[in-house]
Amino acid sequence: MLADGTEEEIPVPGRCDVPAGELLVIRSVLPQDYKENTIAIRSSLENVRIYIGGELRTVYDTENTRPFGKNSASRYVFCETSGEDAGKEVRIELQSFTHKYSGVVNTVYCGDKLDIWAYMFHCYFMVTLIACTMLFAGLVVLIISLVLDIVYKTRFDLEYLGWCMILGAVWMLGESKLRQLFVSNASILSNMCFFVVMICPIPILFYIDSVQQGRYRKVYHVAECITCVNFVLCTALQVLNIADFIFCPTW
To answer: How many CA atoms, within 13 angstroms, populate the side-chain half-sphere of residue 80?
Structure first.
């Protein structure tokens, strides 16, 4: 059901043509033999409200916890249920202030909460493990390179590799479907993805400049300045709620 009262049957997962900021309401009825304890749906930059039998059970809205921006960070939203809810109407309200994600309906899961998380681990644990391993390896490489810098009084290219690995790992963790398990505020980690994408050209440019022994250093300095200006402008646009990171120009 759309904000204007229009009703239509939609596939789940699927998408409806809903203007940014308007509510999309999904309605269904639990079967008479329903005995599960959890209903879950993934929010894609959406506020979520779940009603069971007209009773508001779950609300996901980061308006009071996110540092800036108009949308709630993507995450899985869980709603507790029981066998007493059999035959009751399920009403899920979705709202995103970004047109790209407005009207997006992800898969709705129904079952035991631990079983749902076990399925999520089965699907996404390996990617998250790779990200954690990359972060650890990046920190080790960075520390070793800094120690060598102090001992030998010179800079090693290994340092730039460490920074690149750390930035890549932060981006992977920020995009991880399991991120809500290791951070209490998913909005901050979600924003970190955009920060690292904007600044990742800097260590790469430093590395290329070092390999070429400063032959084109002025050119790389210009590129580094452009990267910094892009970072400041995009951050200002997001903080002032003029334009979200997702619409800002990045490298």
So the answer is: 1
